[in-house]
Amino acid sequence: MGLDARSLWASATSGKNTVALHLLSCMLSRIWKSKAVLVWVELVEQRKNTLRSSLNCDMVSVENITASAVQISRDQLADWDASAR
Q1: Distance CA 4, CA 44 (A)
Q2: Over the stretch 66-85, which tens digit does the pLDDT of each residue have?
Q3: Which DSSP helix (H) or strand (E) runs through 16?
Q4: Whole-model pTM?
Q5: Given phi > 0 = left and psi -120 to 50 = alpha, else beta, which region is 49?
């Protein structure tokens, strides 16, 4: 066993918003130890619903279209949560 810094490295090299997302992940994993993945599943679904509802507007970005269609599995979120711990 050793330090797993994959999520930290990924967030640091992906942009300023992902660093904040990584910090949120660390906080959620500490606050809701056994339920953090469930919280992430709910957050991802809510964000995708928000993005889908914005697709009806005249000014739609390619990023929003792409993000609303991305499939993130519970296993992927669990791996990310484990890396944040």
Answers
A1: 23
A2: 888 889 899 988 887 787 77
A3: helix 16-31
A4: 0.67
A5: alpha
